[in-house]
What we know:
Radius of gyration: 22 Å
Helix content: 25-40%
Strand order of the largest sheet: 7-6-5-3-2-1-15
Largest sheet: 7 strands, mixed
Shape: globular
Amino acid sequence: MKIKFINHACFIIESSEKRIMCDPWFEGSVFDNGWSLMYEGPPPRAEEYDYVWISHEHPDHFRPSLFCESKISNDKKIILQSRPKDKKLRDWFSNKNYEVMEIPQNEDLHIGDSFTLSGDLNYDFDSWVCFKSNNKTILNLNDCISFKTETEIKALKNKIGDVDVLLAQFSFANWTGNKGDLKTPQKAKDVVLTNLKKIFDIIRPNYIIPFASFVYFSHEENSYLNRNSIQVNDFVNYFKDENIIVMKPGDEWRLSDLWCKNDENICFWSTQAKELDKKMHTKTNVFSYDRLEQSFEEMKAKLCSKNDMKAFAEKVGQLKSSTIYVTDLDMCVSYNILESFQQIDTLKEECDVHMSSESLHNVMKNAWGFGTLMINGRFQANYKSFSNFVSQTRLYYMNNIGKSFPASIRVKDIVNSPSLINKLI
C-alpha cells in the first residue's frame, strides 16, 4: 500500500487495485472564514484516484464547491460511513448524480478482490475508516480522538486488529480560551495530548502520521488563537518514543519503504507557522439588528418543523435566556428559543458571550452554526455563564445531525452538554 499526502486531512490510499482519496480540501477558507490552510498546494490529478471517502460534513473534510463545480467529476464513486439517522450527506451526493457506496456498520465494504474498508461513527457525527490490503492495515482516525473511555478504544482495537499506520489529528479544532487567557489553552493541550497518548498506548500502531491540523485561524476575530496551537514539532517531541512520519503536500510513502524526511518536513511546517502573522485576515461583515431579528424568527420556524416545541417547553421548564453582547453593533440582546430575541439594557461584562453580528447571524441561519462557532472560535466567553448560550443553541445543533425532540433528544442532552468548551471552562 502507498500513501500520498495532499493537504490537511486529505490523502490518497493506493493498493494494487484501487486508489481512494480522503476528505479533499485544497484551497479557500472554511468555517465562516475562520480557518485557512497553512499551505495551499496543487490538487491531485483526476487520474490519481478512483474513489472519494468523506468522513463527515465539516467543510475542512467535505468541500461542497469541489463537487458543485465539477472539480471532482461524478464518475468518481463516493464512499460514506452508513448513517441510519442522518441521510443528508448521502442524499446530497445522490442528487448531484454521484454513485454513493456506504460502509455498513459492523461489516466490511469490499473494493476489488483484496481491498476492504471498515468503519464506524464517532458519537453520531464524525467517522473513522480502516483500510486493509495485502496484509497491511491503515487506520484513519481523522478527528475521532476524544473517546470517552479506554473501553471504547479497546473495542476499536479488537475490531480492526493490528495497525501498521495510524493517521490522527494532532492539534485543536476549536476555541481554546479568551484573549489573554493562558490557563485554558494549556488545559486544552493537556486534553488533546492525553487523549492521543491513550489511543497510541492501546492501538499500538507501527507508525503514526499526524495530520488534519495543518490549518490556522484566519479571521481578524480569532487570529490570536494561533499562538495556542500544537505544532507538528511539538507533537513529535512529545511522542518521541513513537515512530512518527511527518509528511508535507505531495509526499508519497510506500509502507515497505524507509522514511527519512521528518527533519525536512518539520522545518517546512515550522516555516509555514512562522509566516502566519504576515497573512491577511478576513474582515467582519456587519448585520443589522433587524436582520438578526429576522434570522431568529426563521430559526424558530425551523425548530418548530423539526421538534415538538410545546412538549419541549413543558419538559425543560424554565430555559434561562442567554445574553449576548454584539460587538460591532455595540448592543446587548436576549436570546431565548422559547420566547424571543430582543435588545436589552445590561452591562456587556455581564453577558454570557461576546460575538460579532455576523457570527450571531450564522448561528441562527444554519443548524450547524453553533458547531461552526465553537470550531472557528470567533467569540469571547463569560466562563461563569457561557453554559446558558450552549443550552439555548444545543437543540438546533442536534437537529443538524438528524436528531429531534422528543424522538431522539432528551432534556439532559440540552442542559448538560458534553461539549469540549464546557469542559474547558
